[in-house]
Structure formats: C-alpha cells, structure tokens
C-alpha cells in the first residue's frame, strides 16, 4: 500500500509540474510507463502481460549504466487525460506485473502538450 501511495504523490507532482509549466489540461497525453530489468525473458513476459492489459508496448532497449552494468528497458504506453485517477488505475494494473516477473517499475512520464 505504501508503494501505491508513493506513486500517487509522484503522479500528483508530475501532473502539477506540467500544468504549472502551461501544458494543456484538455488534451489526451501519451503516458509512458517505464520498466527495467536484467533478464530478457522476464522482461519479455512482462511486456506480453502489459500488452494483454491493453497497453502498447515498445521494443526492449539496452541501457549501459555508469559502472558498465547493462539494463534492459521497455515502456508500456497508453493515452489518457492528465488526471491522477486514470493514471493511478494504470499504475495499479502495472505494478503487479512488475512484481510477478521480478522486474522494476520505474514510474511514468509524458510530454508537454500545447
């Protein structure tokens, strides 16, 4: 439950920052939920589950960290209004998928909209 509450606060902060910067509250946003892990098979299975849950899924990418460690990443993408509740419902669907496969849910992001 506390993890859910942390994501609620994070979600609220992201939305407030975008709106304070003048982003348009009336349009749909492309919400990108970020996942990462080191095991390609686990990541791939999680991506399939995200797709089955109604998300568009990006191809996995390799990211090399400062200490040379390789991380695999993908995004689960869904359009949404920029509102806390629909985004929190998306997070509530995605957190159990990350947990099930032992990968990381790294939060979400979107882009400024005119």
UniProtKB/TrEMBL annotation:
<dbReference type="InterPro" id="IPR009671">
    <property type="entry name" value="RraB_dom"/>
</dbReference>
<comment type="similarity">
    <text>Belongs to the RraB family.</text>
</comment>
<protein>
    <recommendedName>
        <fullName>Regulator of ribonuclease activity B</fullName>
    </recommendedName>
</protein>
<dbReference type="InterPro" id="IPR016716">
    <property type="entry name" value="RraB"/>
</dbReference>
<dbReference type="GO" id="GO:0005737">
    <property type="term" value="C:cytoplasm"/>
</dbReference>
<dbReference type="InterPro" id="IPR036701">
    <property type="entry name" value="RraB-like_sf"/>
</dbReference>
<dbReference type="GO" id="GO:0019899">
    <property type="term" value="F:enzyme binding"/>
</dbReference>
<feature type="domain" description="Regulator of ribonuclease activity B">
    <location>
        <begin position="9"/>
        <end position="110"/>
    </location>
</feature>
<dbReference type="GO" id="GO:0060698">
    <property type="term" value="F:endoribonuclease inhibitor activity"/>
</dbReference>
<comment type="function">
    <text>Globally modulates RNA abundance by binding to RNase E (Rne) and regulating its endonucleolytic activity. Can modulate Rne action in a substrate-dependent manner by altering the composition of the degradosome.</text>
</comment>
<comment type="subunit">
    <text>Interacts with the C-terminal region of Rne.</text>
</comment>
<dbReference type="Pfam" id="PF06877">
    <property type="entry name" value="RraB"/>
</dbReference>
<keyword id="KW-0963">Cytoplasm</keyword>
